[in-house]
Design goal:
heterodimer; A: 266 residues; alpha/beta; eight-stranded parallel β-barrel; 36% helix; B: 203 residues; nine-stranded mixed sheet; four-stranded mixed sheet
């Protein structure tokens, strides 16, 4: 039976793992290679590196870290952040990544997904979508009834700083058609709150698309992981702070899920 | 003496993980599409990233070499398993290496495609690659197509995803996995270690 995946996410800036809320107030959270090794030992199913370096030198450093990690941690590794072309994808894959995450550049030029999928295979392309609920009735948007009210979801770019007006559910269907192999779905509303994943949003994406959905944003407690797997059709859950600051190990979460009957690899 | 393993390079994707994993297990690894290098190596690996048709184009000139490895163990991984069969439905109908009889078809029905993530492999009897590995261990899969062999006796492991498809095939010098052992943590390394042992025995 295919298991649900637990994926620690490492935001990497100039060679260090950092963590903040909505990419501000960044705190140092450790050495990426060391953390990767620890998460692998804890039973992480995959790792995601998100490069938030602002300089070319910072990006180079990230590639070095990817290589070091790939040489000793034998689980799938996704690298995203600042990917603008198939050339960028190639660099990341050559460094040892298995999948590439695209976000802002794909919203601006959706062809990037199609080109990447053609060149490297759909399994290689993870489309990250940052979305936020907008509580207004619009006939030209995919409307969703949620416990907080009726809303549609808007795509945000530039690390969640800029709204685009694009309907996130429509965008999700579109990226599937273009050849994305997976969607990494971050709720801007839930991110950093530790109040749990955005269940309504995750659920609608897993029903409206037919590719794996990774839920992201809001993990604070073991129950949050259980709820997102039990109440939505998502395939994986991603978290950062709960793991970096050792509130729980990946193993703690998986043991908990396993006891509650969720299929996990232990 | 350290065995030399030739990883056949068809110009797509990440060959770093499989290289590093095999080096980690004490082999010399060469990534190549040079006929002479493949012929002089002790074993060859057909790795697993990219599209069927493009990969076949890239290895067309190596067809006879790959078919003529004799008793040198050939490991196919993911797409590398699929390429061994007669033909694939991926991107129309395209011929494969035809070392194994059968075709490659896409997952249908009520499952998400690609099949992505960790799934169990059931040892259907006598798998050499699974030697010493607990039955129904988890391995990492990423694929949209699977093999339907003409001869079921080559199937050494099966996995359930809407259908019970062959996730390991073994025949003569051919060993192939639909999953990525190089991405399957310690269990995957153990499977690759078994392969390296098989290589050593044939040297």
């Amino acid at each position: 039976m295919l298991t649900k995946r637990i994926i620690p996410c490492l935001d990497v800036k100039d060679g260090r793992v950092v963590k903040g809320v909505h990419f501000v107030n960044l705190r140092d959270a450790g050495d990426p290679v060391e953390l990767s090794r620890a998460y692998n030992e804890q039973g992480a199913d995959e790792l995601v590196f998100l490069d938030i370096s602002a300089s070319p030198r910072g990006h180079e450093t990230t590639l070095e870290i990817v290589s070091k990690t790939a040489a000793e941690v034998f689980i799938p590794l996704t690298v995203g952040g600042g990917i603008r072309s198939t050339e960028d994808m190639k660099k990341v894959l050559k460094a040892g990544a298995d999948k590439v995450g695209v976000n802002t550049a794909a919203v601006k030029d959706p062809e990037l997904i199609r080109l990447g999928a053609e060149k490297f295979g759909t399994q290689c392309i993870v489309c990250a979508i940052d979305a936020k609920a907008v509580f207004e009735e619009r006939s030209d948007r995919f409307m969703v009834d949620t416990p907080r009210g009726r809303c549609w979801y808007e795509v945000y770019i530039y690390g969640g700083r800029t709204g685009t007006g694009v309907d996130a559910v429509e965008w999700g269907r579109r990226v599937e058609e273009l050849g994305a192999g997976e969607i990494l779905l971050t709720s801007m509303d839930a991110d950093g709150t530790k109040d749990g994943f955005d269940l309504a949003m995750t659920d609608v994406f897993s029903r409206e698309t037919n590719i794996p959905i990774i839920a992201s944003g809001g993990a604070g407690d073991k129950d949050d992981f259980y709820n997102v797997f039990n109440q939505t059709g998502c395939d994986a859950a991603l978290a950062a702070s709960v793991f970096h600051y050792k509130e729980y190990t990946v193993g703690d979460i998986k043991d908990f899920l396993g006891k509650k009957g969720v299929a996990v690899r232990i | 003496m350290k065995p030399t393993v030739a990883i056949i390079d068809f110009g797509a994707g990440n060959l770093m993980s499989i290289s590093k994993a095999l080096e980690h297990l004490g082999t010399n690894v060469v990534v190549t599409k040079d006929e002479a290098v493949i012929q002089t190596a002790d074993a060859a690996v057909l790795p697993g990233v990219g599209a069927f048709f493009d990969a076949m184009q890239e290895i067309e000139h190596l067809k006879d070499i790959i078919r003529g490895l004799g008793d040198k163990p050939l490991l196919g991984v993911c797409l590398g398993l699929q390429l061994l069969f007669s033909e694939s439905e991926e991107g129309g109908r395209n011929p494969g290496l035809d070392i194994l009889g059968g075709r490659i078809t896409r997952f249908q029905g009520d499952v998400k495609v690609p099949h992505m993530g960790w799934n169990t492999v059931e040892n259907t009897g006598g798998s050499q690659l699974l030697s010493g590995i607990e039955d129904k261990s988890y391995f990492y899969f990423v694929h949209s197509y699977y093999a339907i062999p003409e001869d079921d006796s080559i199937v050494a492991g099966r996995t359930e995803y809407g259908v019970r498809f062959p996730s390991i095939v073994e025949k003569d010098n051919i060993y192939a996995t639909q999953f990525h052992p190089e991405k399957s943590g310690n269990v995957g390394l153990k499977l690759l270690e078994n392969y390296v042992e098989i290589v050593k025995e044939t040297m």
